[in-house]
Write a structure and sequence with these properties.
Elements (H helix, E strand, L loop, with lengths): L9 E5 L4 E5 L5 E4 L10 E2 L9 E4 L12
Antiparallel strand pairs: 1-2, 1-5, 2-3, 3-4
């Protein structure tokens, strides 16, 4: 039997690009713009080690982004 597990969400800030980055329960990364309804305006994000400077943010800040999970 195959067991599929979702990862917990994770919040990051990319200081270079000045944007929020969210890893959803499926492991996908999303860049969120500042402002209302950020999740509805999300864009796919592909982290690369050379161009990305992600700083982890405590999960209790997720209320700021009004995430659906």
């Amino acid at each position: 039997m195959l067991t599929v597990r979702n990862q917990p969400i994770a919040l990051f800030v990319d200081r270079r690009a000045q944007q929020w980055i969210v890893r959803d329960p499926d492991g996908n990364y999303w860049a969120l713009p500042a402002g209302d309804d950020a999740w509805e305006q999300r864009q796919r994000f592909e982290p690369t080690t050379a161009a990305t400077d992600l700083e982890p943010i405590p999960g209790h800040y997720k209320y700021l982004l009004n995430l659906p999970f």
